[in-house]
Each structure stands twice: as C-alpha cells, then as structure tokens.
Amino acid sequence: MFLEDCQKLPSEDSEDEDMLSDGSNNEDDNKDAGDFGVEDGQDVSDKDTQELIGPIISPLRSISGPWHSRFTSIVLKGYILAGRRIHYVDSLHREYGTVVRLSPDEVAISNLEAFSQIHKVGSGFIRSACNGSLLAHREPEIRQKAELAVIKIREDAQAGSADILKWWTLMATDVVAHLSFGESFRMQELGKQTPYIDAIQAALLCGVVRNELSCTVNIFSQMLGQADGQEKTEITDIAVRTEAGNLIVAGSDTTAVTLIYLIWAVLKQPQLQASLELEVSDLSPDLTSEELKNAPLLNSVLEETLRLHGAAPGALPRVVPEKGLSVCGYFIPSGIVVSTQAYTLHRDSTIFQDAQRFDGYRFIDKSQMTAVQKTAMSPFGAGSRICIGLHLA
Ligand code: HEM
To answer: Could you say which residues bind heme here (predicted)?
Structure first.
C-alpha cells in the first residue's frame, strides 16, 4: 500500500502543498468497471469495436484528462514530435492525478502499485539483465576508453574549451561497439563520429528499442555462429542490422547524456565537487570497479543523476493483457496502452523528500532507502524489459 495513491501530484513550484487536499482523481463518475458496460477481460483492441464504442461509451470515459484525449491523439502526437511528451504527461499527472487519459486508447499511470503490476516479470519469456561478468571481462578496455576520453577533454580544455558531450558520446559508442561487435570504431582516436554511426542514429533515433537481444561478450559472433550451425534460422541480415543499430543508439547517447548531466549538476555545487574530488583522489590509480562500488559519494551522485537526469525517463508503454488492469478504482480493459514514466515517479515529493532538488548525498546510505523509493527508482526501466546495458552503464 503506497501513500498518496491515486491522488494528484503536487505542482512543481508548490512542493509543500498538501497533496491530500484532493483525494479524488477529478471525476465524479462511477469508477467501477461494471458501469462502463465492459466485463473484466473483455478485449476492446478490435478496431471495429473501438470505432463502434466511440468516445461516448468508451470504457475509459470516466478517466480524467484533457477533453480532446477522448477523441484524438493528435495533441499528444504534437508533443511527441516536439520532444515534449515527458513534460506534457508530467503536467497532466499534476493536473488530473495518477491515472490520466492521454488519447482514446492510451492511459498514463504514475501509481507505484500499478507500476509494479505493469512491469513485473510475468510468466512468459523473461529477459535477464547483462550480468557483471561482461563488465569483469571487459573492464580494461572500458577503462582505457574512459581514460582516453578524459585525456581528450583535458587537451581541448587546455586549448580553450572542451565539448564534453562529444567526447562522452564517442567514448560510449566505442565501448558499446567493442563489446557488441568485438571491435571499436576508434572514433575517439578520429575525434568524430563515423558517417556509418551518423546514419544509424538518424535512422533509429525515432524508433523504440524493443528487440530481443542476448547479452554476451560479443553478441554478433554468437548470432552468426547460431546462423551457421542451423539449416533454418530466424536471424536475417535485416534483423542483424537492426540489432546492431539498436545497440548503438540504446547504449551510446543514453550513457553520454547521463554523464554530461552529472558533470553539469556537480559543477553547479562547488562544495559537492570538492568532496567528490577528495573521495576519488583517495582511490588507487587502478580504479577497479570493486573500488568504485565502495566510493559512497560517487555512487550517491550517480544515483541522484539517474534519478533527476537519467537519459531515458520517458514513457514505457505496455498493452494491457487479457485480464485487464485495476488501478485506483478504475478498470482498464485489455488492448489499451498504459504507460508509466520515471520522470514523474522520480519527482514525486511524496516518495523523495525535496524531490526537485539535486542532492548529491541523497543516496549516501542506500540502506536508508524505503521500499517505495526502491520501487520508484527506475532509470533503467523495470521488470522483464529492464535495460540490458544496466551494469555496463
Ligand atoms: C545511463 C545509461 C542508460 C540508461 C539510462 C538506459 C535506460 C534504458 C531504459 C529505461 C530501458 C527500458 C525501455 C523499455 O522498457 O521500453 C532500456 C532498454 C534497453 N537498453 Fe538501456 N540504458 C542505458 C544504457 C544502455 C547501454 C550501455 C546499453 C547497451 C550496451 C543499453 C541497451 C539497452 C537495450 C538493448 C534495451 C532494450 C531492452 C528490451 O527491449 O528489452 N542501454 N534502457
């Protein structure tokens, strides 16, 4: 049971407002599924049925949201195209509550219990995250690339100014390429992205990364080996190309963008910067991952960066399965898309005290984290579709 379930989030600029002032989700309508004329488990994904039901008797009609969400997704799409979906949805949660209608067939949810229900590992195929051994085997290569990035940043800074984001991006892309394909693109040495990477990013940035990827030291050698050993294989050239592009996009910009936010947030707090530098200077020059794991402030700053500035805080959409979803007194039938977003959960001041503030010490003692905070912290997603690059990142 989570506090403040099913209620409005405080507005961003009035964090101290009493969140309990409005205990409803803005609707007087009866929230019982029976009143929608839809039985539990009834599938409304069928297009004809949906058109027939229309906005008036839609099973979602009592879920609050902007008036147009009952008729069209055009406004939502406008925000998506403008790259503002996260902020738009966050503002809707603050206005309408934890369950908000976004379009005729999409509902956004920022209720933690529902979050767990939606993302928990089901009984079907379960994807597990990359395990630590990937990191252990590849640590020297990763460190060598990180050191090179720091050298390049220092050289540029000494010559006038350094484009830190550029070097983090080149570093992350080289690391992902090396681990995935067994060979780096050596973009750090070149000092720029290869046209090949430019093309992949342009083609895939708008797509959603959702492919089944196994996580091995060299993913492609395994895939191709499998293809060689079988007469019939599901793995086509196009699939290999798509997987390759997905990995590059999923692993490089996310890591680089998170790192640049970390630098920015720390530089804004000179006191924090000094303490962090002191902690890191006490570590051995080897900087093994074991040693890094035991640097409390460094890890706390990383967690806090992922909380406020993680690079993928947007919608994780899921289709409601046959049994439907009950959330905050609403019943959402099968076929409807429900989405949760870390951006809103991570800024919920009922979960994280002073949630809008970057507090580098917030996670200094992780044993103090409440169960609710642990569930809410989801910069890498959650459940069966959790980021496979989590440990590497
Ligand atoms: C700070 C860095 C990173 C962040 C914040 C991040 C975040 C995420 C999130 C939130 C998801 C879940 C998407 C969903 O549920 O629909 C995801 C999935 C994924 N990530 Fe990451 N990621 C990072 C780094 C990486 C790296 C380094 C790699 C690869 C080397 C990677 C590969 C993937 C892949 C392949 C998926 C898709 C998994 C699936 O569809 O089941 N990510 N990531």
So the answer is: 387
- Ligand 1 pocket list (CB less than 6 A): 127, 176, 209-210, 213, 246-247, 250-251, 254-255, 258, 310-312, 316, 379-381, 385, 387-389, 392-393
CATH of the domain at 253: 1.10.630.10
Task: Return the residue whose CA atom lies nearest to atom 13 of ligand 1.
Answer: 381
Task: Select from 28, 41, 2, 15 the least CA-distant residue to 333.
Answer: 41
Number of domains in the chain: 2
Looking at 309, 341, 360, which one is the last position of a domain? 309
CA 154 to ligand 1 center in whole angstroms: 29
On whether both 23 and 57 belong to a single domain, the answer is yes
Taking the C-alpha atoms of residue 260 and residue 184, their distance in angstroms, rounded to an integer, is 22
Of 82, 225, 247, whose CA–CA distance to 172 is shortest? 247
Q: Which domain holds residue 156?
A: 132-309
